[in-house]
Structures are given as C-alpha cells and as structure tokens.
Amino acid sequence: MTGEPSRPAARRRGRPARAEAAEGPGARERILAAARTEFAERGYDKTSVRGIAKAAGVDAALVHHYFGTKEQVFAAAIELSFTPALTMPDAIAGGAEAGAGERMARFVFGIWENPVSRPPLLAIMRSALTNDTAATVLRGLVERRLLQRVAGELHVPDPEFRAQLAASHLIGIAMLRYVVKMEPMASADLEEIIAMVAPTLQRYLTQP
Description:
InterPro entries: Homeodomain-like_sf, HTH-type_TetR-like_transc_reg, HTH_TetR, Tet_transcr_reg_TetR-rel_C_sf, TetR_C_16. Residues 1-26 are annotated as: Disordered. By secondary structure, the chain is mainly α. It contains ten helices and no strands. Helix 1 runs antiparallel to helix 2 and helix 8 (132-152) crosses helix 9 (159-179).
C-alpha cells in the first residue's frame, strides 16, 4: 500500500466525455439528421458543429469523431440530401430513341416537386450561393457522384461538357422556379416546361 490515490481509467483518444448512451446505435444518424436540419434552417455560415451536436444530443467531440470538420459534416449531410438525384444516370440510359432528354427533365423536376426532397435541396442551393466552402463541397459532389456518371452514359463528343450543359439548363430553371420563384416560371404547368425543355436536353445528350 503506497497511499497514492487511484487514477481514473484513461479515455480512448478522440472520444468525447459524454455518457456511453450518446455514442450508442443511431448516434451517427442523429448527427446527420441534425446537421441537415441545422444547415437547412441556418445556412452554412450560421451553422456550427456545437449547434449540430446540441441538436443531436451529443458532445461536439462525437461529431468530430464521426465526421471531422464542419466542412466534412456538410459534405455528408448534402450527400444524404442528394441521394435521390444520384440515380439520374440510370434515368437517361437508353440512347436518343428512348427520349433521354424528357426522362432527364422528368427525373430532375420530379425531385424538386417532391415536398420531402425539395427543402434539403433548397438549403443546399442557398448555402452554395452564399458561401465559397459550401459551393466547393457541392461542386465536388455533383462532379464526382453525378455528372461523371451521366457523361459515362453518353456516346457523343465532349460528354463531360454535354452533361454540364444539361445540368446548367435544369439548375437555371430550378433556381427561377423553386428558389427565386419568378413568375410566370414559378406557376407554369410542369408538363409545359418539360415539353419545351426536353428537346434541348436531348440535343445536349445525344446529338453528335
């Protein structure tokens, strides 16, 4: 017996001090859900890792443990929000005779018209418009997970450029209709929009 007080067991490096219950099953999913909400309501600039942690009921250190920096949390959150759009390459597969332009337009506008998927997309667009870091993260996701795959489905010269032209056309319409809400675009019949846009998309995607 030396009389020295016993030392508490050392915590694992990189782990927060909060109770184990906060680290249990579902903690990562709670953090992601909280991040999506915080970014949607506050935008990128006004959202903090501490605020995300508070909303998820965990320590900020746990957020860092799972995702790293605020930028990395944002990337994970928008990738989750962007999941419905990541199947777009499948929607345009089939060639010119299959109406790729119309299918692409219907697919993209279908996501924007959906009341479940629209709010996260609005949050992403607004964050990217007001913050360079958010714009860089979104650009990387779109290029890596979406446009490169779309280009891989095309059999035309400069497929990457064609994919970007089609995407820019659709994003421009989405900005006016869903973000800026400019009339008459905001209240125009969706079928009329698709009928007018599809031939141009078809030319981008398939015309040699």
